[in-house]
Amino acid sequence: MKNKFNIINLLFIVGISFVLLGITYAFFNYTAFSDNVISNVGEVYLKMSKDSNDLLLTNVFPETYEHAVYGSNNTYRTNNCIDFTVLGKNTYEEDVYYEIDLEYGSNVEGKERIDDSLLRFELIDITDSNNYVILFSDVSYNDIEDKIIYVDKISNTDTSYTRSYRLRVWYSEDIIISDSDSSADFKASNNEYDSTNSSLELYTNLYSSIKVKIYGDYNKKTCEEYINFETYNSLLELANEYEDGEDLSNLVGYTYPIYLNINNSYQLNTLRVANVTNNTSLESQSASGLVIEFTNIITEHYMNSNGTNVGGWEASEMRTYVNNDIYNAIPKDIRSLIINTTVVSCHGSSDSSNFTTTDKLYLLAPHEVYSDDILYDTGHSATRQLDYNYNNNVSTDNYSGAIKKYNGSDSSYWLRTACYDDYESFILVFQYGESFGDYAFSSRGVSPAFRISG
Question: pTM higher than 0.70 for the full model?
Answer without folding.
Answer: no
